[in-house]
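Summary for the steering committee. The consortium agreed at its last meeting that each partner would contribute one worked example illustrating the joint modelling workflow. Our contribution is presented below. We chose a case with several input lines so that the handling of multiple components could be demonstrated. No manual editing was applied between input and output; the record is shown as generated.
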Amino acid sequence: MKNLIRITVVMVIFLSGVLLVPAMGLPTQGFNWQRYANVYDQASLEINHESGAPGSFFSISGSNFSSKTMVNIYANGVLLGNLETSEFGDLLFLIDSTGAGDGYYLIQVQGTETAGTKLLVDTTGTLWSQEDEGTVFSLNAPGLVPFELLFMPLIEQ
Amino acid sequence: MSDMTDRLAASISALLSVRGTVPGRPYSFSDFIESIYSRMDWRSLLSFSIPFSIYLLTIAPTIYNLDSAELTTAAYTGGLVRATGYPLYLAIGNIWSRLPFGDVGFRMNLFSAVCGALTILLAERILRRWKIGNLATFGALGLLATSTYFWGLSLVAEVYTLHTVLMTGLILALLRWSDRPEPARMFWVSLITGLGLSHHAAMVLLAPASVLFVLLSHPRELIKPRSIAAAIAGIMLGLSAYIYLPLRYLANPAFNYAGSFDANLIFHPVDLTTLDGLIWLITGRSFSGVMMAYQGVELWRETQSFLVQLGRAFLAAGIGPGLFGIVLLFRRSWREGLMLLLMFIFNAGFYINYRVLDKDTMYLPAYLAWALWVAIGYQWLLDWLKQAQSGRMLQYAQAGSKALIVGFVLLALVWNWRIVDLSDDWTTRERGEEILQRAEADAVIFGWWDNVPVVQYLQLVEGQRTDVQAVNRFLISEKDFADALRREVTDRPIYIDGLPRSMSARLVAIPAGPVYKVIPRQIVNEVNERSANPVSDP
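What follows is the complete predicted structure of the assembly.
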């Protein structure tokens, strides 16, 4: 019996850390320079057209995000989906405004870093066709309501 | 011929004071081999050679990026790096980088590998003093040597493995002094402290533990004039490596990161012959804003992140034995236990609260302390099982424990190999060469750490494209950078790794390999007006 207790105590100490593996995980990345590339500038988004008629496609490119990380894409606070940044912290996605109501849409990318840009859907505007290849997110999403007016400080944030 | 070899063996043995194995029989070559074999310290030999072999198989074959490129270029060219100066590393690197094999980048990577393996060797010497057996030593140091960051930072030119060499050397010197507090041993303690301070400012984080250990162990020794003299002599000798900085400043090195560029792209070095200049560099004042940077919830999150990092470093298996080892070392010697615990707490605590992106790389001293605790934990567990009454189940448990200790190391080796292996990583060289190939004559390249130091390495070490000027944006203020960009763009070809948004109204960046060529927006507009194929504005 004493031996059994002793063996149990030893094995518990040996294996106690292993029980934490599901919580902490095992190493997935080591030291490589690509992880720290492009981290010196603020993450930012660029959009090809600031406004367009419903049905337009907008290309949004991001840079200076953490490399190879999943980021969430939001429009006016509604989650549209997610995608992974490139090895160099870049990303490119498209916004399909088919069926979207007129108004402003604040597009935010949230990962380790956060960046935002805006676009205006306006029935009197130009209809832009798709100019790039990439993941397409639709503005015609449940619960997504356009803003009628955006205050500049909010946009900058 | 056989006589000759035997005579030669006898002569060498006489020189080495090695005796024949059989009295009265002539000393033979096989006796010589046998005597060398029996005198060989296999444990030490393997402690160095096993990790070193693993590092050699996975080492980066050429220049690596970020700090590696900066450190390598500065070491080889006798240049200067940013705070905190790293004079010991640069001075040793200046000699080491003349080794006659591989390119300069590989040679400095090799220096990290040697320091990594040397750390394991010195840690083995510490564990030997604590009477830790072969298996527990192998298990604990095997986990350290194959942990992702310790292994990874032994494969590229970096300052961290030299720091861990000095840390293990300091612990060893303190333990030796504690056993026999002689002035000569105090000299070694203070010499290593001085060398450590000449290498990395983080040596300061080991000072409270070291001083307390000395005070608690033999306080009366500290008031003896000979001990005081030995301590002062040792630390002064160690700190003398700092002379390297003003000496190199006076040589006006081509590679200098201790200073800044003005708007005319003229470099103004900080005068390292003055006390102010030297203090500015070695205290890392330019990084003071990121020290003690977290509070409250953020600090707790960073602490959690460190604990996860620590657990992963030891493949989770080292957590239980490590925690157990902390208690056991206190029971064995509370002074030594306190010393190691304070070294761990000060190192981990400082870097947890340090707001930089690459702080994962800075926890090696904490990992080293943890590995020593794991070894103590392992040894106790093995001894405890051995002391139990005999029985079949116990035999299985003993064999199982040993298999687990070895198995965890092998698992770490296999698991982490694919993560850290850089043996086929030429990306930095390829990136730098592509930037230079695409650059037009007399161009200026503005960029951060992932572009500029490697370009400078290719220029200053290998003589490529010396017509190009590379400017690290770390060394120029935002305002001067904006002014320089506006002015130079009309005079010289300009390349940049990312155009600031504030400039996008006037300038356009067009992809040119890993960087962008900057041209005035006005030119793009004119071309677009005249052409049916407009230039796109990325």
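Chain B touches chain A through 60 residues (CB under 8 Å). The CA atoms of residues 316 and 367 of chain B lie 13 Å apart.
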